[in-house]
C-alpha cells in the first residue's frame, strides 16, 4: 500500500466546494518538503547559503594541464620578457629607519644648501655656469673656422705655409629644395594608407593598380628601347656587308687590265716648275698666311673686348640680383610653404639638381595579394628607415646624391712573423 494521500488525477471539473478539498494531488508539495528536510539534515538549505560556501574559485589551475600545454605550445617571446623580473627590489618611497636619527627626526642631507644650489645651477644653466667656465680657463664658444696663430719655426721656413681654413659661403645658407616650384619638402612624408600591413581594400586596390600601370609602362619602354637597339645593330651590319661587296666589285673590275693598259691609264705627270713660278707661289702663300694671321688676331681682340663687356655686365647683374634677393627674402619666405605630399606620390623635381648623380627611386613597398597576412606573427616587415631618411635628405637638398660602391678599395696590410724566437743562446755548461 502507498503512504501517499488519496488523489484523483483526472477530474472533469473542480468548480464545486466538495472538489476543492477532496482528492487534491499534493505529490509535488510533499516531494518538495522531503527535499528541504533532507537538505536540513545534510547541513542546511542550499538556497539560503551564501555563494562562498557553495562555490570555490580556482586561481592556480591544474598543474598537469599546464605542463601538457607548455610541452605542446612554446610560450611567446613577449610573454617570457614580461615574466622576467629583476632581482633588485624597487626603491620605496616611504621613509626608512636609516634616515631617522635617535631622536626620531630626519637626518640632514650630506650636501649643504649652498652646494646644492651651485650644483643645480650647473645642471640647469645660469650665470653660475659662465662663471665656472671662465674660472676653469676654457671658453664655451669654439669657432672651427677661426684663424689660429702658429709660431713659425726657422728650421721649417722653406716649407710652404698652410692656407687658413675658409668658411664656405653656402654654410650659412638654407638647403635648396629640389621640388619644381621651390616649396619645402617635409622631412617625413605622410604614409600612404594603401601601404599598411592591414590596409583598407579600396585604397590598397587603387595603389596596386597605380603601381601596376607604372610597372607596365616601364616594361614597354624597356622593350621598345631593346627593339630600337636591335634594329640599329641590323642596319650597321647591313652597311658593313654592302661596303665589302663594293670593294670586291672594284677589285674584280681591275683584274682584267694588263701592265701596258695600266701605264696608259696613268695621268701625264706635270712638268718641273721654274724658279720664278716657285717664288711667285711662295709669295702668294706667305700673303695668304699673313692675312689669316691678321684675321685671327682681330677676332681674338674682339673676343677679349666682348669678354670684358660680358664680365662687367655679369658683375652688375650679380649686384642687382643680391639686392633683389635681400629685398624679396621676407616675401619669398612667406610665399614658400610645405608641400602636402604622401609617400609614393610622384614629386616633380627641378631639372638642375644638387650633384651629378640622379636621385635614387623610391622602393616599391606595396603588398601583393599573396603577401597579405591575417596574423602579426606571420607578418614580414618591409622597408628601411635608413634609406628613407637618406633619400629624404637628398630631396631636401641637405646632402649630395652618392652612388653606392659595393667593392671599395680596402687598405692593404702586410703580415710578417717576428724572428725573435731565433734570438737565443745555449746555456753555459755547469
Q: Which structural class do the helices and strands define?
A: mainly alpha
Q: Please tally the β strands and state the result.
A: 0
Basic shape:
elongated
Element order: H for helix, E for strand: HHHHHHHHHHH
Biggest β-sheet description = none
Sequence stretches where pLDDT stays below 50 over 5 or more residues: none
Residue-averaged pLDDT, rounded? 77
Helix content: 40-55%
Radius of gyration: 51 Å
Distance between the termini: 131 Å
SS field, number of helical segments:
11
Strand content: under 5%
Overview of the molecule:
The chain is an all-alpha fold and 430 residues long. Among the domains are: 1-51, no CATH class; 193-227 and 341-396, no CATH class. Helices cover 46% and strands 0% of the residues. It has 11 helices and no strands. The protein has helices at residues 17-21, 27-42, 51-54, 63-72, 77-83, 113-124, 127-136, 201-254, 259-265, 275-335, 385-395. α6 (113-124) packs across α7. The relative contact order is 0.06.
Amino acid at each position: 500500500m502507498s503512504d501517499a494521500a488519496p488523489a484523483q488525477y483526472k477530474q472533469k471539473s473542480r468548480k464545486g466546494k466538495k472538489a476543492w478539498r477532496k482528492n487534491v494531488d499534493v505529490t509535488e508539495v510533499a516531494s518538495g518538503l522531503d527535499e528541504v528536510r533532507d537538505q536540513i539534515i545534510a547541513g542546511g538549505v542550499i538556497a539560503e547559503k551564501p555563494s562562498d560556501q557553495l562555490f570555490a574559485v580556482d586561481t592556480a589551475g591544474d598543474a598537469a594541464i599546464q605542463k601538457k600545454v607548455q610541452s605542446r605550445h612554446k610560450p611567446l617571446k613577449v610573454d617570457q620578457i614580461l615574466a622576467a623580473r629583476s632581482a633588485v627590489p624597487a626603491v620605496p618611497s616611504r621613509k626608512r629607519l636609516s634616515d631617522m636619527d635617535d631622536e626620531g627626526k630626519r637626518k640632514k642631507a650630506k650636501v649643504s644648501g649652498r652646494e646644492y644650489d651651485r650644483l643645480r645651477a650647473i645642471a640647469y644653466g645660469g650665470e653660475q655656469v659662465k662663471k665656472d667656465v671662465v674660472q676653469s680657463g676654457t671658453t664655451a664658444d669654439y669657432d672651427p673656422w677661426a684663424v689660429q696663430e702658429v709660431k713659425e719655426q726657422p728650421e721649417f721656413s722653406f716649407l710652404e705655409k698652410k692656407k687658413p681654413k675658409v668658411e664656405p659661403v653656402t654654410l650659412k645658407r638654407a638647403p635648396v629644395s629640389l621640388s619644381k616650384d621651390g616649396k619645402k619638402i617635409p622631412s617625413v612624408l605622410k604614409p600612404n594608407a594603401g601601404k599598411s600591413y592591414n590596409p583598407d581594400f579600396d585604397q590598397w586596390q587603387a595603389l596596386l593598380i597605380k603601381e601596376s600601370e607604372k610597372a607596365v609602362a616601364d616594361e614597354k619602354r624597356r622593350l621598345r628601347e631593346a627593339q630600337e637597339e636591335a634594329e640599329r645593330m641590323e642596319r650597321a651590319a647591313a652597311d658593313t656587308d654592302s661596303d665589302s661587296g663594293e670593294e670586291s666589285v672594284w677589285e674584280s673590275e681591275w683584274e682584267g687590265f694588263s701592265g701596258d693598259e695600266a701605264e696608259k691609264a696613268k695621268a701625264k705627270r706635270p712638268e718641273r716648275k721654274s724658279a720664278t713660278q716657285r717664288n711667285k707661289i711662295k709669295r702668294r702663300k706667305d700673303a695668304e698666311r699673313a692675312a689669316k694671321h691678321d684675321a685671327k688676331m682681330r677676332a681674338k681682340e674682339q673676343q677679349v673686348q666682348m669678354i670684358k663687356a660680358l664680365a662687367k655686365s655679369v658683375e652688375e647683374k650679380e649686384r642687382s640680383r643680391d639686392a633683389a634677393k635681400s629685398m624679396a627674402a621676407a616675401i619669398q619666405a612667406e610665399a614658400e610653404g610645405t608641400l602636402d605630399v604622401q609617400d609614393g606620390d610622384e614629386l616633380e623635381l627641378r631639372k638642375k639638381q644638387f650633384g651629378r648623380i640622379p636621385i635614387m627611386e623610391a622602393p616599391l613597398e606595396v603588398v601583393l595579394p599573396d603577401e597579405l597576412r591575417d596574423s602579426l606573427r606571420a607578418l614580414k616587415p618591409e622597408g628601411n628607415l635608413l634609406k628613407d631618411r637618406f633619400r629624404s635628405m637628398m630631396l631636401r637638398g641637405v646632402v649630395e646624391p652618392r652612388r653606392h660602391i659595393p667593392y671599395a678599395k680596402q687598405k692593404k696590410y702586410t703580415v710578417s712573423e717576428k724572428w725573435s724566437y731565433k734570438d737565443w743562446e745555449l746555456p753555459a755548461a755547469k
